[in-house]
């Protein structure tokens, strides 16, 4: 790989495998993700998307294979500040308010003072929770918890945002706002990895990786994937790459 290619790369994964017991959940995944790219992992429930992005985030460890994120081999503690991770199951403190949750998670990243207060207001506004900041999380709806989790993932202005099904349970107008923000972040230099099983959401990504039974069966832009599959929809493309449709 040339020097200029490696500078423009955010992430390189080489032959990633992950087994739990005797079962291989992720098999031989290799891929490159460019800086300032929105890369989506698309696949049915149970295909291995969550397991894979946890490994790519350095939260879980591959059984074999190598990952380099922004030039550093993972897992590496110093990379935690550079990554914003939003889990599928909300890792929130339910007996604290939204603001207290932000106080806690922000302090883990060493945020403080005026800048931290401003940042809290920005992320709460972005996810439409500014008027609910003092409410206990236990009184939040499922969608509100997702939105707060996204705010927490963004609080420290990470260079890489890794989001597991970020817009599940979020209504269409807020989903649109969140996508606009993802594009804005991307333009400002952030690289975004996300998972989805929703085809229309997948089409909003710059590039996609299709996951089936723990394998990366295809990568490309939504248009490329549809063209190669001679299909007009992402569903058709997915069935084609999965060998279910000729
Ligand atoms: N800790 C674990 N122990 C045993 N099996 C696991 C564990 N974690 C994941 N699996 C299995 O690995 C497979 C992939 O799971 P994973 O959660 O990564 O899929 P997914 O594509 O993210 O699914 P979903 O879209 O439903 O979240 C599933 O069959 C799941 O049951």
From TrEMBL:
MF term (GO), any: ATP binding
Gene3D superfamilies in the record: P-loop containing nucleotide triphosphate hydrolases (3.40.50.300)
Signal peptide as annotated in the record: none
PROSITE patterns the UniProt entry points to: ABC_TRANSPORTER_1 (PS00211), ABC_TRANSPORTER_2 (PS50893)
Top-level taxon of origin: Bacteria
Keywords: ATP-binding, Nucleotide-binding
Organism: Paenibacillus oryzae
Full protein name: ABC transporter ATP-binding protein
Coiled-coil region: none
Pfam families: ABC_tran
Domain ABC transporter, chain residue ranges per copy: 11-238
């Amino acid at each position: 790989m040339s020097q200029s290619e490696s500078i423009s790369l955010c992430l390189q994964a080489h032959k990633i495998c992950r087994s739990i017991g005797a079962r291989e959940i992720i098999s031989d995944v290799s891929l490159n993700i460019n800086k300032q790219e929105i890369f989506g992992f698309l696949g049915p429930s149970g295909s291995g998307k969550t397991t894979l992005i946890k490994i790519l985030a350095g939260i879980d460890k591959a059984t074999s294979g190598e990952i380099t994120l922004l030039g550093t081999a993972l897992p590496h503690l110093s990379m935690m500040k550079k990554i914003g991770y939003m889990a599928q199951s909300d890792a929130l403190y339910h007996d604290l308010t939204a603001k207290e949750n932000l106080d806690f998670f922000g302090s883990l990243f060493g945020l403080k003072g005026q800048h931290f207060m401003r940042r809290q207001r920005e992320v709460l506004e972005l996810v439409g929770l500014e008027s609910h900041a003092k409410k206990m999380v236990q009184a939040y709806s499922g969608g509100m918890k997702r939105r707060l989790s996204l705010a927490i993932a963004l609080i420290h202005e990470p260079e890489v945002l890794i989001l597991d099904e970020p817009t599940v349970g979020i209504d269409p107008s807020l989903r649109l706002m969140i996508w606009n923000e993802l594009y804005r972040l991307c333009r400002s230099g952030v690289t975004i990895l996300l998972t989805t099983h929703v085809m229309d959401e997948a089409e909003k990504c710059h590039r996609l990786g299709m996951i089936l039974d723990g394998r990366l069966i295809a990568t490309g832009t939504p248009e490329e994937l549809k063209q190669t599959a001679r299909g007009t929809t992402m569903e058709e493309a997915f069935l084609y790459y999965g060998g279910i449709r000729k």
